[in-house]
UniProtKB/TrEMBL annotation:
The keyword Transport does not apply. It comes from Cynara cardunculus var. scolymus (Globe artichoke). GO terms for biological process: nicotianamine biosynthetic process. Signal peptide: none annotated. This is Nicotianamine synthase. It is an enzyme of class 2 (transferase). Keywords: S-adenosyl-L-methionine, Transferase.
């Protein structure tokens, strides 16, 4: 009974904050915007067993609208700080001015360790070419991975917005190393076909396809054109954090073998999903849209185990591997 009241209180609080956010004249960074989104994040971060599919339809509609508002606000925030960083002679030396940079450092290390665990049995075998879809004006994931973890890898950043790519390129161009390994492509990923076969790993940003049906279309496109056995890494959400980002379920990844799903329990919001494209083509069920993104992401054939980080700061994080599919 207590759990029901806790969930009702959580939903009520989220709806109150949504109501205030929806009445703002702009979602560009300001005191009011920062305060409301901070309240929202702090409300959604604590572990919760809430199941979105159990919520009334009007609450699910509110959640969909809230995810879009979060995406819009995040875009404004990144653009604001990208412009600020570009005012420095060496922008990459000042990334700490972005208020969530430490989260990206933790998430980058987490994603690298997950990737390292599943990419190859040979420790010297690392990805040569990586694509990041939905990189935006402040491509911190690519920058963190390229700077600290995949130091000889080429990163191809895709964004549909040419202005976002122009801003991102300004941050990287003064750096003698990253400017030679980081490339920006202004195009709709749904129009990219044969080039996708060139990438060992493809990252799909959380806000590409804020509606899960749109995200599934992108995933199906990647399943069609990525190289056999290439790795796909996505970001998802768990518990109340699903009010902030779409949830990617294993059944949404037709054409891929889901390897693991990791749920951080700290200030890193996004769950991380890693999957490998099947070596042979798999028939995709294009009619699969039932309860997309609103149910539990735990299939019946999973097992629990702790994710052991490899002598890195993640040892201090409460991270559980929720899903480890038998290979």
């Amino acid at each position: 009974m207590g759990s029901f009241h806790d969930e009702a209180s959580l939903v009520e609080k989220v709806c109150e904050i949504y109501d205030k956010i929806s009445k703002l004249e702009t979602l560009k960074p300001s005191k009011d915007v920062d305060t409301l989104f901070t309240q929202l994040v702090l409300t959604c971060i604590p572990p919760s067993s809430i199941n979105m599919s159990d919520l009334p339809e009007n609450i699910q509609e509110t959640r969909s609208k809230l995810i879009r508002l979060c995406g819009e606000a995040e875009g404004h925030l990144e653009a604001h700080f990208s412009t600020l960083l570009a005012s420095f002679p060496n922008p990459l030396h000042h990334l700490h001015v972005f208020p969530y940079y430490s989260n990206y450092l933790k998430l980058g290390r987490l994603e690298f360790d997950i990737l390292n665990r599943h990419y190859s049995t040979e420790p010297t075998d690392v990805p040569k070419n990586v694509a990041f879809i939905g990189s935006g004006p402040l491509p911190l994931t690519s920058i963190v991975l390229a700077t600290y973890h995949l130091t000889n890898t080429a990163f191809h950043n895709y964004d549909i917005d040419p202005l976002a790519n122009s801003m991102a390129s300004c941050l990287v161009s003064p750096d003698s190393d990253l400017s030679q390994r980081m490339f920006f492509h202004s195009t709709d990923i749904m129009e990219v076909t044969e080039e996708l076969k060139e990438y060992d790993v493809v990252f799909l940003a959380a806000l590409v396809g804020m509606d899960i049906k749109d995200k599934v279309k992108v995933i199906q496109h990647l399943a069609k054109y990525m190289a056999p056995e290439a790795i796909l890494m996505l970001r998802s959400a768990h518990g109340a954090r699903a009010f902030l980002y779409p949830v990617v379920n294993p059944e949404d990844l037709q054409g891929f073998e889901v390897l693991s799903i990791f749920h951080p329990h700290d200030e890193v919001i996004n769950s991380v999903v890693i999957a490998r494209k099947h070596p042979t083509p798999v028939e995709v069920d294009h009619s699969h849209h039932h309860q997309l993104g609103i149910g539990s992401i735990m299939p019946s054939s999973c097992k629990y185990c702790d994710f052991q980080a490899f002598n890195n700061p993640l040892n201090q994080m409460n991270i559980i591997e929720e899903l480890a599919m038998d290979e």
